[in-house]
Design goal:
about 375 residues, alpha/beta, FAD/NAD(P)-binding domain, D-Amino Acid Oxidase, Chain A, domain 2, 2 domains, eight-stranded mixed β-sheet, 9 helices, about 25% helix, about 30% strand, globular, FAD-dep_OxRdtase, FAD/NAD-bd_sf
C-alpha cells in the first residue's frame, strides 16, 4: 500500500484544482483518474466565470474563487477572455429587479452597472429589439475548462504528485481501493462530480443533463457573455426540464449557445426536441444566430446537491475522508475557491470565507 498525504479521486476541474493547491503546500499527492483529465462534466461545461447572487453562500464562494482565477489569466491553454457578462432584461419588471442585485453585488465587492435600453444596444447591436436594458458585470470572463484542468494537474505532477490511471472502486476512512485491487492510504478527497454516489452514497447527488451548441466562426457578432435575467430561475428551479438564454463569444470567434437542464435524463445522446427548444430561446434574444451554422452539439451532466450548495469538507463520521462535489452549474467558477477551502480545512487552517454552508454534515441535520 502506497502512502500519501492526500489522495484526490477524480480529475475534473474541481479535483484538478484540489491536487494543484494541495501540491502547492508541499503535500504528497496522488490523483486517481481513469479517463482524460477534465474529460467529464468539465469538458461539457460552458466555462463561464460569473458571480451568482441568488444565495449569500453561493455569492461568497463565487467571489472568493474569481479572485483566485486572476492568477491564471495569462495561461494560454485557459483561453481566458475577460469579455464581461451582460444580463439582459426582457421587460420593465425584470429591469426593476436589477437595482437590488446591484446593491447585493456591491456589498460583496463586485463591480456592476445598470444599463438602460439605449446603452444595451450600443453594447450589443444584434440583440432583438424591445428589450428593457440590463446589468453589466465587466470583470467576468470565460475560459476553456479542459485546458485549465490539464494545466492544474500538470503543475501538480511537476511538484511531485503521482497520477494513477485507475478507477477507484471503494473509498474508506483513510484509504482507496482501485480496480486493479491495489490500495492507497492517506487522506481521501472524493471529487467525482455526478458520479459521487458510486463512492459516497450517503451524500445525495442528482445528475442534471445539459446541452450545448457551438457554431462556426463569426467573430464580432457579440462582445459579452449574454444571459437573460431569468437564468437563475432556470438554474435553481426544480422543473424536470428548462431552458434559458446564455451565449458566449469564444476566443476562436465561435459562438457557444446554452443552456438546458433536465433531471432524470440518463442518455448521453442529444435530444433534438430539447436542442430546438434551447435554440428557440436564444433566437428570441439574438435573431442573427439563426443564420449561423452549428458544427457540434454535445451533452453533459451537472452534479446537483440536495440544496444547490456544494459538499466541501470532511465526510460526516469520518476522520480522513473528504469531499468536493455537487457544484451544479457553477463548478468552473467555484473550482479554485472550493479546492482552496478544502486544502485549508485539511491542514486545520482558518478558511478565507465561512465554509459552514458547504459542510456535508448538513445532509444529516
Amino acid at each position: 500500500m502506497s502512502n500519501y498525504d492526500v489522495i484526490v479521486v477524480g480529475a475534473g476541474i474541481v479535483g484538478a484544482a484540489c491536487s494543484y493547491f494541495a501540491s502547492a503546500q508541499g503535500l504528497r499527492v496522488a490523483i486517481v483518474e481513469p479517463g482524460p483529465i477534465g474529460g467529464g462534466t468539465t469538458a461539457a461545461a460552458m466555462g463561464h466565470l460569473v458571480t451568482m447572487d441568488d444565495d449569500p453562500a453561493e455569492l461568497a464562494l463565487a467571489q472568493y474563487s474569481l479572485g483566485l482565477w486572476e492568477a491564471l489569466t495569462d495561461l494560454p491553454q485557459a483561453e481566458y477572455r475577460r469579455c464581461g457578462t451582460l444580463w439582459v432584461a426582457s421587460n420593465a419588471d425584470e429591469y426593476a429587479r436589477i437595482l437590488p442585485r446591484l446593491q447585493q453585488l456591491a456589498a460583496a465587492g463586485v463591480q456592476a452597472e445598470l444599463i438602460d435600453a439605449q446603452q444595451l444596444y450600443q453594447l450589443e447591436p444584434t440583440l432583438a429589439p424591445g428589450l428593457a436594458g440590463g446589468m453589466r458585470v465587466p470583470g467576468e470572463a470565460v475560459v476553456y475548462p479542459p485546458g485549465v484542468a490539464r494545466h492544474l494537474v500538470d503543475t501538480a505532477l511537476a511538484r511531485g504528485a503521482v497520477l494513477y490511471r485507475q478507477r477507484a472502486t471503494h473509498v474508506a476512512d483513510g484509504n482507496v481501493t482501485m480496480d486493479d485491487r491495489s490500495r492507497l492510504s492517506g487522506n481521501v478527497l472524493v471529487a467525482t462530480g455526478y458520479a459521487l454516489p458510486q463512492l459516497l452514497p450517503q451524500l445525495p447527488i442528482r445528475a442534471r443533463k445539459g446541452h450545448l451548441v457551438i457554431t462556426d466562426r463569426h467573430p464580432g457578432l457579440i462582445s459579452h457573455q449574454l444571459l437573460e435575467l431569468g437564468y437563475a430561475d432556470s438554474a435553481h428551479g426544480s422543473d424536470e426540464s428548462s431552458v434559458a438564454f446564455n451565449v458566449q463569444p469564444r476566443a476562436t470567434g465561435q459562438i457557444l449557445i446554452g443552456s438546458s437542464r433536465e433531471f432524470d435524463a440518463t442518455s448521453t445522446e442529444a435530444s433534438i426536441p430539447m436542442v430546438r427548444r434551447m435554440l428557440a430561446r436564444s433566437f428570441r434574444f439574438i435573431p442573427a444566430l439563426q443564420q449561423l451554422e452549428a458544427i457540434r452539439i454535445w451533452t453533459g451532466f451537472r452534479p446537483t446537491s440536495i440544496d444547490g450548495q456544494p459538499y466541501l469538507g470532511r465526510v460526516p463520521q469520518q476522520t480522513n475522508l473528504w469531499v468536493a462535489a455537487g457544484h451544479e452549474g457553477l463548478g468552473i467558477t467555484t473550482s479554485l475557491g472550493s479546492a482552496q477551502l478544502l486544502v485549508d480545512q485539511l491542514l486545520g487552517r482558518t478558511t478565507a470565507i465561512d465554509a459552514q454552508a458547504y459542510n456535508p454534515a448538513r445532509v444529516f441535520a
